[in-house]
Amino acid sequence: MQLNLNGKRAFVTGASRGIGAAIARALIEAGAEVIAGYRERSDVPFGTAFHCDHKAPELPEGPLDIIVNNAGIWLPTPVAGDDWEDNFAAVIDINLLAVAKLCRAFALRARPGSCIVNISSRASHRGEAHYAAYAASKAGINALTKSLATELGPRGIRVNAIAPGWVRTDMTRAHLDQNPLPEPLPLGRVAEPEDVAGPALFLCSDLSQYVTGVVLDVCGGAYLH
Ligand SMILES: NC(=O)c1ccc[n+]([C@@H]2O[C@H](COP(=O)([O-])OP(=O)(O)OC[C@H]3O[C@@H](n4cnc5c(N)ncnc54)[C@H](OP(=O)(O)O)[C@@H]3O)[C@@H](O)[C@H]2O)c1
After folding, report:
1. What is the model's pLDDT at position 88?
2. 9-218: what fold?
3. Is the pTM of this model over 0.85?
4. Among 169, 185, 223, which residue has the most ligand 1 atoms within 8 Å of its CB, making it the best to mutate?
5. Alpha-carbon distance 167 to 70, whole Å?
6. Looking at ligand 1, which atom is closest to the CA of residue 74?
7. How confident is the model at residue 2 (pLDDT cuts 50, 70, 90)?
8. Is 43 near ligand 1, meaning CB less than 6 Å away?
């Protein structure tokens, strides 16, 4: 049994930067052909660029063995905020509904041995003040992951998720610049995108061939349950 993705074709959404770019790189280094989804930034650092806006999500053509649903937004939705309803709906549409559509499209054509990895968040477990829509969307991702794992398992398709804690990317940079250690972190630092790419690679490979329906915490021990 090897960590070898030779001959596998993978689609990673939101791969223009941040966690998605790191996952695309890890999959390529393991031998996969990677199609890198982007919304605006077509200059993807790894893989072949493919436009996929979650407002109208579509899969690339041709066979796919792996999909990593990584693209997402972190938009505040405080209860007293302006445009609460529009913003809440936008977060659910982009972070949950679009992922569900991509999972469905993938599953309709997936072969045995294929797998789905969805990027959730620690917020899915414990909630997040001022980000209720985000936390709810990621809790939905966890339930989607577990539901599809049981539905698609008999067809030989595995479905897992990763719940990162703080990761230094464009999404969090401003916050982390002001709060380099935003909470007690047993491993003493926030994550870099590569810290999430390793577990994603594991879940995409045969090393995890008997793992499905799991939401894997990648938070440096900051949240234990
Ligand atoms: N950073 C963290 O601390 C953290 C923690 C927990 C979970 N996560 C999750 O990890 C995932 C990646 O986060 P990140 O920190 O790497 O974010 P990021 O640096 O902000 O990158 C976001 C990526 O998603 C794409 N994207 C944004 N809106 C999109 C849309 N409407 N349609 C398609 N693609 C879209 C962006 O594409 P363009 O470049 O083309 O705009 C970009 O590739 C997200 O699901 C996020 O919720 C992040």
Report:
1. 98
2. Rossmann fold (3.40.50)
3. yes
4. 169
5. 13
6. 47
7. confident
8. no
